[in-house]
Each structure stands twice: as C-alpha cells, then as structure tokens.
Specification:
338 residues, mainly alpha, Farnesyl Diphosphate Synthase, 18 helices, 2 strands
Length: 338
C-alpha cells in the first residue's frame, strides 16, 4: 500500500477532464499556474538538484491534491495567491514522499519514467525529497496563514508515522482491519484531508467549513487507498502500471488479504515472506484472495467511505461548480476500479 503506488494512479485522464470541466476556467487556470510554479521551483536550486526535482515533478501525476485545494476554496479560487501557494505546497509534499518511497523501495521506475533513485542514486534522491519538503513549507509560509502551515505540518508528520507503521507490519499475519485503516489514514488520507482543509481556510468557505471539508478529504483518501489495494490484487498491469501482487512481494498487508485470511484457513497460515518471493507466486496468491470474495468486500467498504464523503459536503456554502466537481472527484475514486 505504498504511497508511491497511490501517486501513480491519481485519476484517469477522462475523469480529470470531467473534473476540470466542472470546475470551470478558473480551476483549469489555477492548475496551469500551479504547474508553472512547480517548474519554477524545481529549476531554481542549482544544476544537479534542479535536474532531479524537474525530473520528478514533470514525470506525470494528475495534480489531484492541488485540485482539491482549489475546489474546496470555492468561489474565491481565482482570487489572490494564497490558494495557489497552498496547492503547490501540497503537491510538493506529495511528490517528496514519492521520492523518499522510491529510496526505501529501491524503485527503478515511476509512472513509466526512471526515478531519481535510479538515475542519481540514494543520496541525490534523498536530497531531492528533502528539497521538495522544505520548499513546500516555504511556499505555504508565504501566505502568512499559520493555521494552514500547522495543517500541512501535521499531515506530513502523519505520513512519516504511517510509513513506520507499514514497515513494522510488513509480512505480518496479525494486522487487523482497524490497524490497516489507521495506516491508510496516516499514509494517504491525511494529505487529502489537509488539501481540503487548506482550501477552506484560504478560500471562500473559511474556517467554519474546514472541519467538514477535511472530513470529506479523509473519506476520499481512505476510499482511494482501499481501491488502490484492490487494484493491486485484481490488475491488470496495463491499467495499474505495476504487476499484480506487488504489495504482496513487498510484504505489505492490505485489506483484501486481511479479509481473505478471515475466510480462507490456507491463506491464514501462509507465511508471505517465504511463500511469495517471485511474481508468479504473488499472482497465485492474488487468485486465491479473489476467490474468497474479499475484493468485493473491500470495494463495499470503500464505497461506504465515498458515500460518507459526499454527505460531508451537504450544507457547506460551496458554489455549484465546486460542489459538482467535488462529487466527481468522489465518483472518480470509484471509476478507478470499474
């Protein structure tokens, strides 16, 4: 359940086009400005670090988290630089975690492109991730909104705690659903929540709506990660960008496996570390997991989070376009599975 995997599949292009269309010209303009600002930041730190940062920020990604910042900013999304800086900051934090994940996973490719780890080595990748983290907070601090800096700082700390939890749980046979969901919340949902909260704090809805919009982001993030973990088992590779069972090979225990273990005694007694050492073995375990009905069970839980996310939007003073686009974001999480 690495955030690296999550980042690779933020939204299908057609879904993103629909969200941008719903958000109107203001959303598209802000996302274009965010891309230009990200490029400017990447290029402004010397030849070596600048090359690696540019390589990372230009390697794809659908800018889902900045999109959430801008949409949750509502009617004020086109006013001033506060929301723009917040969207850029969230994307920088997200990208920094991916670079550091590549170091931990010794990953050669991301979104079909060579990683900084593979082209520049461990030291260059670590330094690049550190640079992106530091620039994220410099960008957000320029808004003068201390509460926003606190929100992003808290989410960044959660990412680190989630990574440590995932490493501690590797190949474990005793991970519970509650512990899995807490890990999802820390590694994925907290940054979604922060993106929505920043939009509210710096945009039209204001602090009064920050809690509800943050809850929307939390539920979307949980559903996003569960569906991502379902896709790791169900494939196919041409849709997911990775081989089936990659999480199993990494020792990452996800919801489909937890549920399948409850239903299949053979899976419950399986020692992942010794039994899943190559792709063919991982695919065989994926087939066994699917046969238990665990994928449908996981999907239903994720759909419940999507429904909760949409309910959180009720009663918030968002303009019609932003509300419609946020509903499409929620639906897009489901579409990734369909």
């Amino acid at each position: 359940m690495s955030s690296a995997a999550a980042g690779a599949k933020d939204a299908a292009p057609a879904e993103l086009q629909g969200i941008r269309a719903a958000g109107g010209r203001e959303l598209t303009a802000l996302l274009d400005r965010a891309d230009r600002r990200l490029a400017q930041i990447a290029e402004g730190h010397g030849r070596a670090l600048g090359r690696h940062a540019t390589q990372t920020l230009s390697a794809g990604g659908k800018r889902l988290r900045p999109t959430l910042v801008f949409l949750c900013g509502g009617a004020a999304a086109g006013e001033g630089d506060g929301l723009l800086r917040a969207g850029v900051a969230v994307e920088l934090v997200h990208t920094a975690t991916l670079v550091h994940d590549d170091v931990l996973d010794r990953a050669a490719l991301r979104r079909g492109h060579p990683t900084v780890y593979s082209t520049g080595g461990r030291e260059a990748a670590t330094a690049t991730g550190d640079l992106l983290f530091s620039r994220a907070f410099a960008e957000l601090a320029a808004t003068g909104a201390a509460e926003s800096v606190t929100a992003l700082s808290s989410a960044s700390s959660a990412l680190a705690h989630g990574e440590l939890m995932q490493r501690a749980d590797a190949w474990s046979g005793s991970v519970t659903i509650d512990r899995y969901l807490e890990r999802c919340r820390l590694k994925t949902a907290r940054l979604f929540e922060a993106a929505c909260r920043l939009g509210a704090l710096l945009g039209a809805p204001g602090a009064a709506a920050a809690e509800r919009l943050g809850s929307y982001g939390d539920r979307i993030g949980l559903a996003f990660q569960i569906f991502d973990d379902v896709l790791d088992v169900s494939g196919p590779t041409e849709r997911t960008g990775k081989a089936r069972g990659t999480d199993l090979l990494d020792g990452t225990v996800t919801l489909p496996l937890i549920v399948a273990r409850e239903r299949d005694p053979a899976l419950r007694s399986l020692d992942l570390r010794s039994a899943v050492t190559e792709p063919a073995a991982a695919e065989a375990v994926c087939d066994r997991i699917a046969a238990t009905g665990a994928l449908d069970a996981a999907r239903k839980r994720a759909l419940a989070f999507v429904a909760e996310a949409k309910r959180e939007l009720d009663g918030i003073a968002l303009d019609h376009r932003s509300r419609h686009a946020l509903d499409l974001v929620a639906d897009g999480v489901v579409e990734r599975y369909s």
